[in-house]
Amino acid sequence: MGILVFLEHHGDELQKGSLGVLAKAASLGDDVAAVLVGAGVTALAAEAGRFGAGKVWLCEDDSLDPPTPQPRVDVLAQVVADGGYDTVLFANSVLAADVAAGLSARLDAGLNWDLADVESRDGDLVGKRPALQDSVYVDVGWTSAPRLALFRAGSFDAVPGGGGAPEVAEVSPSFAEHSRGARVVDQQLEESSGPSIEDADIVVAGGRGLGQAESFTLAEELAKALGGAVGATRAVVDAGWYPYAAQIGQTGKTVSPKLYVALGISGAIQHKVGMQSSNAIVSINKDANAPIFEFSDLGVVGDVHEIVPKLTELIRARKS
Amino acid sequence: MTRPSNFPPPFRASDHVSEPADPEDERIEVGILIVGAGPAGLACAIRLGQLLEESPDVAERLGEVPVALVEKGKQPGSHLLSGAVVDPRALRRLFGDRVRLEDIPSYGPVHGEAVYLLTKRAALRIPPPPPMRNHGNWIFSLSQLGRFLAEKAEEGGAMILPETAAETLLVSHGRVVGIRTGEKGRGRDGEHLGNYEPGADLVARVTVLAEGTQGHLSGVAIDRFGLAGDDPQVWELGVKEVWKVAKPLRHVVHTMGWPLRLGTKYREFGGSFVYPMGDDMVTIGMVVGLDYRDAELSVHDLLQELKTHPKIRKILEGGERVGWGAKTIPSGGLHSLPSRLHAPGLLLCGDGAGMVNIPRLKGVHYAIESGRLAAEAAFRAVQRGETPATALGSYDEAVRESFIWDDLHEVRNMRQVFGRGFFVGGALASAMTVSKGRIELGKMRAEPDADQPLLRTDRAASYPAADGKLTFDKLSSVFASGNRTRDDQPNHIRIEERVPRDVAELWARMCPAQVYEVGADAGDGTVEVRVAPSNCVQCGAITAKGGRLTPPEGGSGPEYTLT
Q1: Nearest-by-CA chain B residue for A294
Q2: Reduced to 3 states, what is the DSSP secondary structure of residue A184?
């Protein structure tokens, strides 16, 4: 019995999303372990301990540095067998989704997908899955073990639980022949100056109300002053004012920063579903009837072109 | 005077006809190919399953996949929307004693009905005109019915390929030999993305087009084989919502009049419906002929306006909107049907061929019946010793001998007379009904919807502001349709992008999904039209009013479940 969490790392840094899931798992029970696969993971075990892993399974192997899913399925299948885990949790990413699906097939285990939360109820786990365009949560369960779950990005805060040094175990699985068949030909990093919008604690997003592409510098300057990332609505991405990678909403990214600043955004529901779980929402819009004011914590009716430069100025002055 | 048809879209039907392009060993070969998992296509697949079960030798000759069906939506039902009060006789004929009507998901038979003539504040109850009497008809969600029929079709051995658009008609030596599916994974400028998939040739002995209203390849086939009818096809646009309500509605309601205007010059033909869906849901919709002239007319907003009427508001009070959708309805009737419903290797059925009875507001049972008849003709065509051309031709005869033809003949001029205004049209329509269509008024010509000159009357001023509870803006509606189409795919809508302001505003107002926006003034009397194709719910109104809808990447568009 116990929960295993698949941790993802980029370089020497553990991904915030998977640490969030680990922290959540630690709040559910005592027997929580993490698994780390790749090159240089031994050094990351202690960090996993801080977020609640009592035990860390390591598969330190330079040949596993490229993020291919199949060898990781082999590792996880082995760990589940050796450790007797009845629950395996993943934080959604391109890699984790592939690994979760592969593991589900390998173990003939049920995988609940796209969960936003999980809780323990009468000794059983109950997942929460958003449905009907995120307007309701559906309780989902598992009919057999092991139970697999993949959580939406940003579902949990990565808060260190203050655990001690974890027990470390090495795992050396036998790889299936097909597992090593795929290789990574090339990896390219997308250039970006600040934090990514999914990871940023502060997001400054711009909408059609900015008036023109050039006005996005207002959002960029404010984001820089606040130490945040810049997001955009679909309308401005459609208009070519800002790249698709920054699009927040139903067909873009889902973010839940501590502070979300909406500049000239009307707040159509397609945008709302991508940012409604932000801790604090501040909106500036000329139109007092804009729907965004209905779900803002602080709403300012006014012209972004007048307010934002002064706001940026004030924040800079306060910080220096 | 400005007419949308003066600004034709950059679209040529001939670009969507080709010889098979894949090498012979890479083509996907099926026996009979059906395009569109709606009531027509699914009925066709179900009937073929029944026939092939009785003749395993024929099934065997048709190869590994005797019957395949392609559907552009996420799943069968995703793109289905209708009223829908359905005349159940076609379902009974299709299933015989294999499936009882009671075992098909529905909201039961109609228990009573009321027709109202509305003014802004009042509602005058009038006796239901004979064609609108619905005794013996059943209430369905067409989307749910589609999912059920798809299960039955699969049980009968049909292979359903969802998320697959039929993009090109494959024609070889003058005969339709299948379709080519749409590509997937192209970026906005047509560039290949990481998940790019080319289209594939699906070749078949018989291809049945059951694409529904504004069918892409149906239009292409009508052009390629010269099948246009006596009259051009015309359409209405229906926008509907599904509501969870606090108290049950007992009967079906139709309204005429407000918020439409009755004057002849406006040409605002249409009305609304409110149907119960069990005890806790109702569906409410507004249908307006697309031969309207006012550049500011918006069926979406007229539906919002309608809901503010005391009579309607009372039905919805304490309720919540749970679904939304929009679709065009072919309304030309008999004279607008294709001159033939078959071409070499090809059959046309259902709404795609225009089989709708507008005075009775019915078409689903014609779709099912024509799909069933198409199955029988296609089955004959693949028999040993049959001449395929004669066998497919027998489909036209069968349709002419069916109730489809009798019904459509009876009401053949009814839609056209409403071009003469509500009261004159109403009187003529009554005369036709009473005489069972025997009265000859001479044939009345229909004009293409896009030929109507535009006028301005400040119509939009009356549309209510969205309150998010009773009335909604278009983007919220698109959201409620379940549409989550990838934003960075190529634009699938063909329009002239520089048009007079009146035409641009016509499109912007007309579109229930906020696809068009009036852009910058070009300084030469035209404006730029900005297009947000991922909002599109593929209703087809743009094709009626001067543009051309083509299928986007398979799996795009709305995901209707209750409509």
Answers
A1: B468
A2: coil
Query: Could you tell me the CATH number of the domain that includes residue A63?
Result: 3.40.50.620
- Residue A282 domain-assigned? yes
**CB contact residues (below 8 A), chain A span 207-266, against chain B:** 234-235, 237-239, 244, 247, 250-252
Provide the domain limits for residue B510. 106-139+233-333+450-549
CA neighbor of A24 nearest in space, from A101, A87, A118? A118
Report residue B381 CA to chain centroid gap: 28
B512: distance to nearest CA of chain A, Å? 15
Residue B475 has its nearest CB partner, among A244, A252, A269, at A269
Domain end call among A146, A180, A214: A180
**Secondary structure element (H or E) that encloses residue B305, with its range:** helix B299-306
User: Is A207 found in the same domain as A153?
Assistant: no
Contact A291 B468 (CB under 8 A): yes
Are A221 and A100 found together in one domain? no
Domain of residue A89 covers 3-180
B68 and B175 co-located in one domain: yes
Statement to judge: residues B61 and B85 lie in one domain: yes
Least Cα distance to B245 among B314, B151, B145 occurs for B314
Q: Do A291 and B532 touch (CB under 8 A)?
A: no
Which chain A residues in 11-50 lie under 8 Å from chain B, judged by CB atoms? Answer: none
pTM of the model: 0.81
**CB distance A244–B478 less than 8 Å?**
no
What ipTM goes with this model? 0.77
In a domain, B443, yes or no: no
For residue B166, give the nearest of B157, B178, B155, B158 by alpha carbon.
B178
Same domain, A113 and A51: yes
Total residue length of chain B: 563
Pairing of strands B184-186, B252-257: unpaired
Question: Which residues in chain A (68-97) have CB-CB distances under 8 A to chain B?
Answer: none
Return the CATH number at B240: 3.30.9.90
| Judgement on whether residues B64 and B164 belong to the same structural domain of the protein | yes
**Inter-chain contact A247–B480, Cβ cutoff 8 Å?**
no
- Domain harbouring B375, CATH code: 3.50.50.60
C-alpha dihedral sign at B338, B340, B342, B348: positive
Is B205 domain-assigned?
A: yes
> Residues B405-433: pLDDT tens digits?
999 998 887 766 665 555 555 555 565 56
Q: Is residue A12 part of a domain?
A: yes
Which chain B residue has its CA at the smallest distance from A250's CA? B484
| Number of A–B residue contacts, CB under 8 Å | 37
A270–B487 C-beta distance less than 8 A: no
Residues B169 and B277 in one domain: no
CB atoms within 10 A of CB B193: 14
Cβ atoms of A230 and A218 within 8 Å: the answer is no
Tokens 């795929």, residue located: A182
For residue B419, tell me if it sits in a domain: no
pLDDT, tens digit, for every residue of B192-243?
998 899 999 999 999 999 999 999 999 999 999 999 999 999 999 999 999 9
Please tell me the distance in Å from A42's CA to the nearest CA on chain B.
Answer: 33
CB-closest option in B322, B473, B484 to A250: B484
Q: Are residues B288 and B399 in the same domain?
A: no
Provide the β-strand partners of residue B181.
B166
Domain boundary among B355, B383, B410: B410
**Residue pLDDT, tens place only, A74-93:** 999 999 999 999 999 999 99
* Terminal Cα-to-Cα distance of chain B (whole angstroms): 38
Q: Is A140 helix (H, G, I), strand (E, B) or coil?
A: strand
| Side chain identity, residue A141 | G
Same domain (yes/no): B165, B55: yes
The H or E element spanning position A105 is helix A94-107
Q: What are the backbone dihedrals phi and psi of residue A35, each rounded to the nearest 5 degrees, phi first?
A: -125, 135
Residues of chain B contacting residue A250, judged by C-beta atoms under 8 Å apart: 479, 484
